[in-house]
Amino acid sequence: MGNKQTVFTHEQLEAYQDCTFFTRKEIMRLFYRYQDLAPQLVPLDYTSCPDVKVPYELIGSMPELKDNPFRQRIAQVFSDDGDGHMTLDNFLDMFSVMSEMAPRDLKAYYAFKIYDFNDDGYICAWDLEQTVTKLTRGELSAEEVSLVCEKVLGEADGDHDGRLSLEDFQNMILRAPDFLSTFHIRI
Amino acid sequence: MSRQPKSLGEEAGSGVRGQVRSGSPGTGDRSGRRPSKKRAPRAEGAAGRRGAQPGQKERVGGSPGPGSPRRKQAERRRHREELGERGRSSAERTCTEKRKKDGRTSLKEQRAPSRKEKEAPRKEETWKRLKKHRSPSLASGASVGESLSEEELARILEQLEDKKKLIATVRSKPWPMAKKLTELREAQEFVEKYEGALGKGKGKRLYAYRMLMAKKWVKFKRDFDNFKTQCIPWEMKIKDIESHFGSSVASYFIFLRWMYGVNLVLFGLIFGLVIIPEVLMGVPYGSIPRKTVPRAEEEKAMDFSVLWDFEGYIKYSALFYGYYNNQRTIGWLRYRLPMAYFMVGVSVFGYSLMIVIRSMASNTQGSTSEGESANFTFSFKMFTSWDYLIGNSETADNKYASITTSFKESIVDEQESNKEENIHLTRFLRVLANFLIICCLCGSGYLIYFVVKRSQEFSKMQNVSWYERNEVEIVMSLLGMFCPPLFETIAALENYHPRIGLKWQLGRIFALFLGNLYTFLLALMDDVHLKLSNEEKIKNLTHWTLFNYYNSSGWNESVPRPPLHPADVPRGSCWETAVGIEFMRLTVSDMLVTYITILLGDFLRACFVRFMNYCWCWDLEAGFPSYAEFDISGNVLGLIFNQGMIWMGSFYAPGLVGVNVLRLLTSMYFQCWAVMSSNVPHERVFKASRSNNFYMGLLLLVLFLSLLPVAYAIMSLPPSFDCGPFSGKNRMYDVIQETIENDFPTFLGKIFAFLANPGLIIPAILLMFLAIYYLNSVSKSLSRANAQLRKKIQALREVEKSHKSVKGRTTARDSEDTAKGNSKNATQLQLTKEGTTPHSASQNQTTGKKAQDPGISRSASRITLPVSQHLPVSRPPGVRPDSGQPRPQTHPWRSASGKSAPRPPH
């Protein structure tokens, strides 16, 4: 295809298409979105794989993310060092997982990581509290929050160890009718 | 269900396993060199690649010739093998040879045709690495001796399959991009290197060629997919709306787009097979009575007011049933138009049924059982209530509010689930509300019946006013406009939960529309019967007119009389065209009413609120009129019923689908604009959860209901005697019989007659019922088994968890021991801190000892790579990429327990 773009080599594009759920056009669009976030930072030539990171402040201000209560977690989960600063690869990764085409399992895995605020491999009561607070903007009282967390643990904690493991989470989320339709970001 | 977590973990494992297993004879001691390359993340990877290019140029310069030292060495070694060494089996040797040659041929083949020049460096680099690996491979192959055999070949094949699978599924692995890219590149190299080696003898070239073609095919498919996604219209518009209003509003537009696609296909079918042939090959306008405007209407036939009512020239055009001639074949193609007309009418329904059912099925396939949702109320609220699509702060605010409310509601529900206050009042109000709504429905039904009857009176009178002519359409549109808000007001009495309320509302509007449509149909049917009873009279009249015209005296007998002008021939009322016109008008007026409602109700209101807010006593935006919300249920139902009318009417008015395509096209743009410019997001943003299938279900119901009258008309009403493709026949379906009798060989006709025998059809129907019953019971028992399995798995998991906590402690100790004993495995073992057992520890130690075995030793060292490099944060155990290590074929733990995440990496 006579594409005039010189940002990526042909092989790079092919590889990205293999590694994400995007078509070539979408990858290019994502790249330009990424580039627009920090035009002075991101070069227009990625054939040599420059080591560029766009800071979280810019990532989080994308219209797709700026209203998301979990935007910081998303950026942290997909960034290399957990600080929310993203390379292009991270960026593509993020939107690939969030794309419509990504399978349930993959989405569930990353959703778990997003809701696991303290990165300890389990969603514990504290993580749940964080989630509820973020979802309701702190409009529930402390008792209500703790009640909700209790309920969630009671429902989804299969092994009664007081926290949700990835298995518990997947077991629960894979039955959720809306998970696929809500856990995706169009770009 | 519970298989899924496992499969994820396993995928991650198998990927690594595949990579690890590449302990093939060909890559003997790659381990030494691999790590350095692999450790380089993607960023440096490419630098390395560029760095490799000088070397490869070198190679291009000299190495392929037989004089190259490395090559000589290999040659010599091979010679020696052939002479004396019986250590290696012949199979392996041929394999190596083949690989060698094939590497070369495949390179040539790949480089020669149509590969871009850009890609060549990569190929050459691969080739170089391939060469690099080959000579050591021979060395190690010789040293390992017996271990290389046909099994090895089989193993390579297996690995190849693994790698190919990896390439196909790498995108759904939970790895960071850098790792995915590395894995992908490695797998591709592996496949490129070995796929040629597997052909047998002469089939080798063919095999390589097939591989090449397969690659090309994949590339083509990808390009085609790219092309296909570019062809999907309005993607960006819908995304825009989705981010502003959430997925529920967008689901309407997606549904609209889908509907547009379906209508486009129907339009193509009707236009291509009926209208175009008729226009091109049928007898032209004005040649026969049915294609001519009658004398009485002639002077007004071109007036706009007449045309607007689809009378005059439009009535006598190919857009309507009556225009078609009953000539069996038309044109030099001998196109059987009546037959085509009938078949297209049938296939319109067939295609619609098929596509609706198929999309319903594909919708249900992705979804899980809904019965569980009661068990996870809070969890689902917590983890799936946020719509990640929302990209608009206003919507987000509403969403926060609605989530908070729903949490509070659930808490209240939980706390006082059996609190009953004033149940009598609630009951009374609900009964009252239902009574009122039934009254409304009956009233609207009667009104429509009355109006249609009146319109029949009007149609007999002369010079009726515009209102009287269009009364039916106006009344129906007004009812559709005002009843839903009325229902909503009444529903406020009932005090239902909004979600249940929405369902009631949808059901009521559906009942209203359906009632209206069917009343309309019944009234129309009365009209049709009236016309049919008059037909006999007109037939006689026509006959007599023609008879008198030709036999009247006062004409010179020697000159044959010119035939009577077609405009002067008296003709019947052609009820089919009348029905078609009714539907056409209904569609158009429906469209206009929708647009006017949007313009007045949404746009003008928004303008008013926006601009009068500066000089008004109260806050208009927050207070009473405010902005309109997008009415999803009303719009969807409107669309569905409109489609129902199209299905019903398209048999009588082939042009109707074309009108509908235009309507959908304009309404897409118009509504997109209106929703973005003058609507606000819903106060209670709700998700489009599975509602898509709900829409589809309604659509299917409407399709079925619109199939009924058409089927009735085809089967039991006689067609008009002087218009339409079936004129002169007793019933419309006679056209099939006629075709079978005249155009098919007699034995086929006999077969058809036999098939149509009730004695055969009734058993067939019985058989179908039996099959349905059987399948139904099978699916029931399967789902029961499913539920039982789920319970079992749940119990198993609990048991395992309790075991795990005990195991975890022993594991930590064990791994420390091993780390001391074997420095090579240190990284690996530290990472497998959970689920490791004494057994696995000992296995690892033996692994370390068997350093001479290339496959396993490499696995031991290589396995550390992805882990050490790509696991900056702690991972949950289930998907740890290091969980898939080379394991014996019969793994006691996997096969026995079937448990998922904490798999012991022995």
UniProtKB/TrEMBL annotation, chain A:
Residues 103-138, 144-179 form the EF-hand domain. GO terms for cellular component: growth cone; ruffle membrane. CDD domains: EFh. Its main location: other. Keywords: Angiogenesis, Calcium, Differentiation, Integrin, Lipoprotein, Magnesium, Metal-binding, Myristate, Repeat, Spermatogenesis. It is found in: Cell projection, Growth cone; Cell projection, Ruffle membrane. GO terms for biological process: angiogenesis; calcium ion homeostasis; integrin-mediated signaling pathway; spermatogenesis. Transmembrane segments: none annotated. InterPro entries: CIBP (IPR051433), EF-hand-dom_pair (IPR011992), EF_Hand_1_Ca_BS (IPR018247), EF_hand_dom (IPR002048). GO terms for molecular function: calcium ion binding; magnesium ion binding. PROSITE patterns: EF_HAND_1 (PS00018), EF_HAND_2 (PS50222). This is Calcium and integrin-binding protein 1. It comes from Lynx pardinus (Iberian lynx). The lineage of its organism: Eukaryota, Metazoa, Chordata, Craniata, Vertebrata.
TrEMBL record, chain B:
Pfam families: TMC. One of its GO terms (biological process) is regulation of calcium ion transmembrane transport. Keywords: Membrane, Transmembrane, Transmembrane helix. Residues 574-689 form the TMC domain. Residues 820-849 have a biased composition (Polar residues). Its main location: membrane. It is found in: Membrane. Residues 13-24, 43-55 have a biased composition (Low complexity). Residues 80-128 have a biased composition (Basic and acidic residues). One of its GO terms (cellular component) is plasma membrane. GO terms for molecular function: mechanosensitive monoatomic ion channel activity; voltage-gated calcium channel activity. This is Transmembrane channel-like protein.
